[in-house]
Amino acid sequence: xxxxxxxxxxxxxxxxxxxxxxxxxxxxxxxxxxxxxxxxxxxxxxxxxxxxxxxxxxxxxxxxxxxxxxxxxxxxxxxxxxxxxxxxxxxxxxxxxxxxxxxxxxxxxxxxxxxxxxxxxxxxxxxxxxxxxxxxxxxxxxxxxxxxxxxxxxxxxxxxxxxxxxxxxxxxxxxxxxxxxxxxxxxxxxxxxxxxxxxxxxxxxxxxxxxxxxxxxxxxxxxxxxxxxxxxxxxxxxxxxxxxxxxxxxxxxxxxxxxxxxxxxxxxxxxxxxxxxxxxxxxxxxxxxxxxxxxxxxxxxxxxxxxxxxxxxxxxxxxxxxxxxxxxxxxxxxxxxxxxxxxxxxxxxxxxxxxxxxxxxxxxxxxxxxxxxxxxxxxxxxxxxxxxxxxxxxxxxxxxxx
Length: 402
Prior knowledge:
Layout: H1 7-18, H2 28-31, E1 38-43, H3 49-60, E2 68-71, H4 82-91, E3 96-100, H5 108-118, E4 123-129, E5 146-149, H6 155-161, H7 172-190, H8 194-203, H9 209-212, H10 216-236, H11 240-254, H12 263-270, H13 274-286, E6 290-293, E7 308-311, H14 314-319, H15 326-338, E8 344-345, E9 352-354, E10 358-363, E11 378-382, E12 392-394
Parallel strand pairs: 1-4, 1-5, 2-3, 3-4, 10-11, 11-12
Antiparallel strand pairs: 6-7, 8-9, 9-10
């Protein structure tokens, strides 16, 4: 390889950098130890992985050509290999390689392992689909890398992204114990909260909403298709027929969430059996398109039947034409925001059991404690309520956890 062979990649890299702004930087930026030699950042399409690493490059490297950003969905890699590029880049003095869309590259695990082992002072950061699973026997990167997951915007981040309020991250303990004071401080900045919360529920989870708000739901539909038509077969090697069945499963579930349909009936509609049906269901969960709520006797690795199925976030509910029932919207928001950091299970009583100790019911202003009144660590997450009282906590506050 010669220097001129790299020019299309360099030009693409510089073009990407020219589009980056620093209006908002995700908290994950500070959580990552960028000096680790092998870093994985996973997340759904549209949550801002590319922006995150490009912002880091612009912040960390006074001379941007001291680093190199590449995207493996670039056609350049149809006639050049990643190993060849890494070898040339390293021997030209490069020590920081940022790789986007790693799952588009065949045998990427083995290739990255070889690069990592051969160049012991080369730092590699790579991004990929949330569906990625590190398989032992294909490079076995798990012992070498530090992995991170980037979710969509929290309600707190949305408010800052909109220049509406600057609110610190609160822990769940903070919210349970100090929610009245926290809500008062937020209200001082925002005034009326509910209109901003309603806007977030419809279009605030994926950062690209800023650019295309009028076509946001259509763009989300395209992203879902991309995930299932492009990412899914690259990662799980599924057939076209399975992809179509998985898309149909998602649409059927979107019409019935959060209740679990009779699974045998669902498999019958899809023309599949239980084994394949469960694999498809869990693929949708890995893709950040569904959330599966289990009871405490099951876990996501066992491929057991979930107690409830939700779309991953409220924006997807509006984009996929789901039955927009306000109770489901509220529960979907609560589960989506807490599951980023806390273990959520389906309880015997109530809606959600958090970290095996806190029991929550989610509802509107008239919600009562009747179902969980005898449980000591029980709380209500109440919508349409700017400030709470004792164990009645405004629902939107659970969007301040990250």
